[in-house]
Amino acid sequence: MNNEVVLESAGTLHGQLQRGLGRAARRAADTPGAGEYVYDCVRRDPRWDQQCETRGLYYARLMVDLEMPVGPVADHLFDPADQGDEDESRVWLGLQVLGDLVRLSRREAALVLRRYADEGTHWFDALEELIELRDPSLTTGMTGLVAARCDDDTLDELVNRPPNPVIDNWAAAEPRVAAAVARRRGAAHPARRPGGAGAGRSQRTESELLDLARRRDDGAVAAIFELGRRRAPGLLDLAEELLPQRPSRWGGAVCRALREYGPDALPRARAWAAAHNGCEDMALRILARHGTRQDIPLLMSELRDALYRRDWSDAAGPIEGLGRLRAGEAVPLLKTAWTESTYAYLRPRVLTALTRTAPHTAEAYTVEGLWDCEEGVREIAAQAVPLTGETRIRLQRLHHDPAEEAEVRAAAAGRLI
Questions:
Q1: Which is nearest to 322 in space by CA: 292, 362, 282?
Q2: Angle ∠(369,370,371) on CA atoms, nearest 5
Q3: Which of 31, 68, 180, 270 is a Cys-bridge partner for 155, taking CB atoms 3.0 to 4.6 Å apart?
């Protein structure tokens, strides 16, 4: 089976489903063949960033609304290509969709998860989905399978999570699982280390801290953070030394420390942005977070360039900054980012920016956002959407849906009071 992703145009239903747009979820019921597009999205995971973006609940809801059977998802999981395939990303989305189908009361999906846990190449991911459902009745009789498939290291990884009734049931029946749980509890309460390991950093001078930071050893990171806490001017000099070099833990520490620096870093950030000296990325983050209206042209230029290059991660900072500054001139670019981006994790930022810069224009996007794949979008939309007969019904569904995120349910409930 060919699982190569071909992203369709954002003007098509298929392309909108790939992007997880709410407009596609609203159109699907009235479009013949929409179910095949949903299956294609589950088989050929279209996410730009599988670590950040969510699609499982989005596609599971569509399968429920369109009364689609789970068989084609099972066929994908058990395709002969699964045997010996080391790329677990091939099955991640399918397993997530099955888990969310169970949360939506399609309990037959749990049978597919159980079977994949028993027979599939990436069985551990299926076990994790079953555990996250927190329903021991779905995992009855699986203790022997868990004991047979997991060595001690794998068991430790499996139980390394908050208390869970599924794990508790397995531990009651299998001593090795119980031992893994005991190890986790011991690791959660380690013996306290004696104080003073970092004593004296707050008493050191800025010059001494800079000397420590330039050693690039384990103590350098703590020194960098102390410089950031003090908002020491030397940290900006250190950034010019470290950031143009290849990525390192010390450069990363400088970036994190500069987050606490505040608007005092603006003059240097503007100079970095103009000089293109290797500090541009950090400059843009500072300008997005603390810039003033004089920085709008630069943020606009950066956003326009990122959208042209379709570099969605680079678009995030300018979008946040333009929204914070309520830059009305950015609205056309924000609308383009909403529609075209294949990075759904960008849309909460876009919707926040639209509601700040053009509240009337944003109303249509908040309505659509109630059906979006990203919980962040659904939460913002629930807080801001105009109340109509249609949106009240949708808010009621979000509020009462056990598969929905708690923050979205709370936002929906707050609007229905």
A1: 292
A2: 85
A3: 180
Residue indicated by tokens 């555990």: 131
Count of beta carbons in the 10 Å neighbourhood of residue 413? 15
If DSSP codes are grouped into helix, strand and coil, which group holds residue 46? coil
Which of 37, 51, 52 lies closest to 6 in space, CA to CA?
A: 37
Domain boundaries, the chain: 13-133, 203-279
CA angle (98 as vertex; 81, 413 as ends), nearest 5: 150
- Inter-residue contact 152 to 180 (CB < 8 Å): yes
Cα(168)–Cα(143) distance, integer angstroms: 11
Q: How far apart are CA 343 and CA 109, in angstroms?
A: 28
105 burial type by CB count under 10 A (0-12 exposed, 13-18 middle, 19+ buried): exposed
Question: pTM for this one?
Answer: 0.87
What is the distance of C-alpha 174 from the center of its chain?
35
Q: Report CA 370 to chain centroid distance, whole Å.
A: 18
- In angstroms, the CA 308 to CA 322 distance is 17
Q: What is the pLDDT along the chain (417 residues), one digit of tens a residue?
A: 455 778 999 999 999 999 999 999 999 989 999 999 999 999 999 998 888 899 999 999 999 999 999 999 999 999 987 777 777 888 999 999 999 999 999 999 999 999 999 999 999 999 999 999 999 999 999 999 998 989 999 999 988 988 899 999 999 999 999 999 998 887 655 554 444 444 455 678 988 888 888 888 878 899 999 988 888 888 898 888 888 887 778 888 888 888 878 888 999 999 998 888 788 889 999 999 999 999 999 999 999 999 999 999 899 999 999 999 999 999 999 999 999 999 999 999 999 999 999 999 999 999 999 999 999 999 999 999 999 999 999 999 999 999 999 999 999 999 998
**Cβ contact 15:8 at 8 Å:** yes
- Which tokens belong to 134? 């927190």
> What is the distance between the alpha carbons of residues 303 and 325, in angstroms, rounded to a whole number?
14
| Closest C-alpha to 362, from 371, 375, 370, 353 | 353
